[in-house]
Structures are given as structure tokens and as C-alpha cells.
Design a protein that fits this description.
Radius of gyration: 20 Å
Helix content: 10-25%
Distance between the termini: 28 Å
Strand content: 25-35%
Strand order of the largest sheet: 1-2-3-4-13-8
Shape: globular
Number of helices: 4
């Protein structure tokens, strides 16, 4: 912990006097404890990466493999020129899945999300959530395309981790997603993922439209970036979450900053997945 050299005082402008804190002690913590970066928001633009070698140099320069994350902070972003999406990705957290999963992820990593939707898509062909997220059109068709395109620029630094995904729904039971809603997740399991839609816990740290505990069980971590701003800060875009909301709907993050849900066949839902890069 930082050592106070004298009581903190306020000057006439209401600002804390800088020399009231032993700043060297604070910087020692930041520079040697990578997870402390989950408490600092900055939002620096690091430019555009057009090759795997440029990505590798960036990761090396900032000590990502050692878990130090030198001079990287929440909200920092860079464009990944993958040839398809070419979107800016921002740091939503550091090592949020380290040692997590039924097979632990033991590689230090950046948790990245696109600042804007990569594209739009339906979750399923019809308004049916029977197979949960794992068996959805989104996860079986759209997400593999994301994996393929991101691997073009990230290579093996696009990490594989284990995530808990719903794989069945009971249409006859009550859902916690809304009054009178029926249909809830009835099964889930650990699956290997590279890119995957976020769940409600990742955004708000709470289940709001989720049908029950299966929907958020494996990834209960709120991404630290959302302790500093909301999910529509960069653009007011509606996007899908992987939580089942009812027999016919999946949860979504609304373009008004709200928690929402949409019919599974809605083709205008945004695709904004979470990836781990290390």
C-alpha cells in the first residue's frame, strides 16, 4: 500500500496536493503488479497493427507475457487490420480469466472487445433458443468466422480458453428474464472458445435478463472497463449477449445503455465478442 507522508490537504482549487502522497510507492505498485492496471482507465490510441509481427512486438514491448502490462491501461485501443472487420479493439481487462476454467488458462493476457460492433447477425434462424448459446447459429456459424479473421492478424496470440456455455433450454419452466416469461437454460458445460459473446455479468456484474444461473455461471467477472463507463460510451449500438432470456429470446445490451432482450431471429443485433490476447 502507498505510504502517506503527511495528511492529505486540499489547496484553494480543491485539488489534492501532489506531495501529500509518496508517488514513488504508488508507481512501484503499478509497475510491478500487473493486475493494478485493472483499476486505471486511460483510453490511449496505439494506432493500427497491419501484421502479426507488429502485434508480437507490441505484446513484447509491454510485458504482456510476464503479466506486467507496462504502460497499458483500461480503454487503451488499437486497430487490428485483419482484412475483414478492421476494427478498433480496446482493453476491457487484464488477466481476467487467468487460472480460470476446468482447464486453467495459464497465459497472461489482455481481455479485448471491439469498440464498435464487428457486424450484425441473428442468433438463430427462428425465434427459438432450444439449444442454448452453444448450439446457436451465432456460435456455430458467425463466431468461427470471427476466429478465422482475427487469427489472420493475431496468430497463436488469439488464445483458446475454456468457457461455460449453455447447451439446452427447457421451454416449460419460468424464466428470471421478465414477468411471465417462460423458457430457461437447463444445461451447460465447459467448451473451448477463442472469441465468444459476453454475458450479462461481464457488462453489469449482475444478471438482469438472464433466464437463470446457467447463463452466467462460468464467467461471473465484470470487465473492469465497465467500472468506468457504460457499454454505449463509444457508439450507441445494440449488441447480443450469450445469455438465454426465454424460449424465444436472448439477452442483449441496449443502444440506450439498458439491459435488453431480442427475438433470436432478429438479424440486426450487433456482434461484439470478447477475446483474450497474450
Amino acid at each position: 500500500m502507498a505510504t502517506l507522508t503527511k495528511p492529505i490537504m486540499l489547496d484553494e482549487t480543491g485539488l489534492k496536493i501532489v506531495d501529500a502522497i509518496n508517488s514513488k510507492s504508488i508507481m512501484d505498485i503499478i509497475n510491478t503488479q500487473g493486475l493494478s492496471h485493472n483499476c486505471i482507465y486511460r483510453g490511449k490510441n496505439w494506432g493500427t497493427f497491419t501484421s502479426l509481427s507488429a502485434v508480437e512486438q507490441f505484446l513484447s514491448d509491454h510485458g504482456v507475457s510476464t503479466g506486467l502490462f507496462n504502460d497499458l491501461y483500461l480503454g487503451d485501443y488499437f486497430v487490428l487490420q485483419d482484412g475483414t472487420y478492421n476494427k478498433a479493439w480496446e482493453i476491457a481487462g487484464f488477466d481476467m480469466f487467468y487460472n480460470c476454467g476446468d482447464t486453467a488458462l495459464t497465459t497472461h493476457h489482455l481481455n479485448l472487445i471491439p469498440r464498435n460492433n464487428l457486424r450484425t447477425s441473428k442468433m438463430n434462424d427462428t425465434n427459438d433458443t432450444t439449444g442454448g448459446y452453444y448450439n446457436s447459429y451465432m456460435h456455430k456459424t458467425v463466431i468461427p468466422e470471427v476466429d478465422t479473421n482475427m487469427a489472420k492478424i493475431l496468430g497463436s496470440h488469439l488464445l483458446t480458453r475454456r468457457a461455460w456455455l449453455t447447451d439446452a433450454v427447457n421451454k416449460d419452466v419460468d424464466s428470471n428474464g421478465g414477468p411471465g416469461w417462460t423458457g430457461a437454460s437447463s444445461s451447460g458445460n465447459w467448451y473451448s472458445v477463442k472469441s465468444v459473446l459476453m454475458n450479462e455479468m461481464n457488462i453489469w456484474g449482475a444478471a438482469i435478463r438472464s433466464s437463470n444461473g446457467y447463463d452466467n455461471a462460468g464467467d461471473p467477472q465484470k470487465m473492469p472497463i465497465f467500472n468506468f463507463r457504460n457499454h454505449v460510451c463509444n457508439a450507441s449500438e445494440w449488441f447480443w449477449l450469450r445469455c438465454v432470456a426465454s424460449a424465444s429470446t436472448f439477452a442483449g445490451a441496449g443502444n440506450y445503455g439498458n439491459a435488453d432482450a431480442g427475438h433470436a431471429s432478429t438479424a440486426v443485433g450487433g456482434v461484439r465478442p470478447l477475446i483474450c490476447v497474450g
